[in-house]
Amino acid sequence: MTFVWAFIVGGLICVIGQLLMDVAKLTPAHTMSALVVAGAVLDGLGLYEPLIDFAGAGATVPITSFGNALVHGAVAEANQHGIVGIVTGIFEVTSAGISSAIVFSFLAALIFRPKG
Fold this sequence. Notes:
Blueprint: H1 2-22, H2 28-44, H3 48-55, H4 57-60, H5 64-81, H6 83-112
Helix pairs in contact: 1-2, 2-5, 5-6
Transmembrane segments: 6-24, 54-71, 83-112
InterPro entries: Spore_V_AE, SpoVA
Protein name: Stage V sporulation protein AE
């Protein structure tokens, strides 16, 4: 049943993104920004962690999880280190994912030789 809920929740997040582009006529960049902000706001309100506990990868894979990670890391580090922790927490939590994206994109570019 875990897989079903992950599929449904992840699909609903994607449907929201698609509706933002089709109905609200937002560009993909604006849609992505809106979903990141939505994830950040939901985490700030304490609603995103229960969603992750319920849906697993259905809530951690979509872009809303990036907003969640930013706020979650900033709040956790701010509690430990004060104001400086807000900035360091954002980088600490997201650095592994961003670094992986850069490295794997570079490796894919080497293997598949994109035409610029």
